[in-house]
Each structure stands twice: as structure tokens, then as C-alpha cells.
Write a structure and sequence with these properties.
This is Reverse transcriptase zinc-binding domain-containing protein. The chain is mainly alpha-helical. Helices cover 49% and strands 0% of the residues. α2 (33-42) packs antiparallel against α4.
Length: 76
């Protein structure tokens, strides 16, 4: 995603397993497994989907906490 925005030199994620897409960053990237753990505890695997994270009001707090925990979009 950052590649398409001109913010990265390659579409490949730094983990080396896949391109850095929204789904990869939010749900799959091994770089963020620890930060993602609270999300996994809050939602059963069958419900931990992009659609749930973006549309369920109860999920938004967990999603924002995850994004903050990664530091991926920290200003500065």
C-alpha cells in the first residue's frame, strides 16, 4: 500500500513473506504478531476479518490500539 502511495521503494513487506497490503498488515504480517495478539484474543478466528475490523464499532477500538502498538504510522 505504501508503495502505491509513493512512500516505499517496493510493494514487498519488510517481513519478506508478501506484498504489504492492508490485509497483510492488519491480519497476516509476522512482524506484528505481538501487537496483533490483543486483536486475536478479542475476536474468534472466524470473525477476525477485514470486514469486521472496519465495520464493527466494537472492533474499531481494538483496531486503533493495534495500529498504535505497531508504531507503523507514528508521526515524526
Amino acid at each position: 500500500h505504501l508503495f502505491r502511495l509513493g512512500k516505499a521503494d517496493s510493494a514487498r513487506c519488510s517481513c519478506g513473506t508478501d506484498d504489504e497490503t492492508v490485509i497483510h498488515f492488519l491480519l497476516r504480517c509476522p512482524n506484528w504478531n505481538r501487537a496483533r495478539a490483543p486483536l486475536r484474543r478479542a475476536f474468534p478466528p472466524s470473525n477476525l476479518q477485514l470486514r469486521t475490523l472496519l465495520n464493527d464499532p466494537d472492533a474499531l477500538t481494538h483496531l486503533f490500539d493495534y495500529i498504535k502498538a505497531t508504531g507503523r504510522f507514528a508521526a515524526g
